[in-house]
Amino acid sequence: MSNTVIQFPENKIVRQPTIPLSVKNKMQKRATKSFADDISRIATNEIFTFFERAGFNFDNPILIRDLEVVTEFLRSVIYRQTGLNHVLQKNIDNVDIKKVQDKY
Fold first, then answer.
1. Which of 48, 75, 82, 92 could form a disulfide with 40 if both were Cys (CB 3.0 to 4.6 A apart)?
2. What is the CA angle 4-6-12, rounded to 5?
3. How many CA atoms lie within 13 A of 30 on its CB side?
4. How far is it, in rounded angstroms, from Cα 100 to Cα 102?
5. What is the reported pTM?
6. Contact, 63 vs 56, CB < 8 A?
7. SS3 breakdown of the chain: % helix, strand, coil, rounded to 5?
8. pLDDT, tens digit (0-9, with 9 covering 90-100), for 43-78
């Protein structure tokens, strides 16, 4: 028999698994997109509720189309604020809002 005794650590060593950076980035982007989409859904719900209470006719396909455009522009704004890209952001950048406001 050997007189050598192996000493084991008294405290349990817990090793955290390492997640590759590319996977972390994908997870973060997915979480950010989910957050932005949730905000967009809530805001859209509020807009639709407001229009409904104001008596707008939701059977009107033109109203539905207009609100779909508003919803996508709103989503574009929310995406930009959370660091995500949206195809309509370029359109927003190209609008001369002062010129539009002056017409109305």
1. 75
2. 170
3. 6
4. 5
5. 0.74
6. yes
7. 65, 0, 35
8. 999 999 999 999 999 999 999 999 999 999 999 999
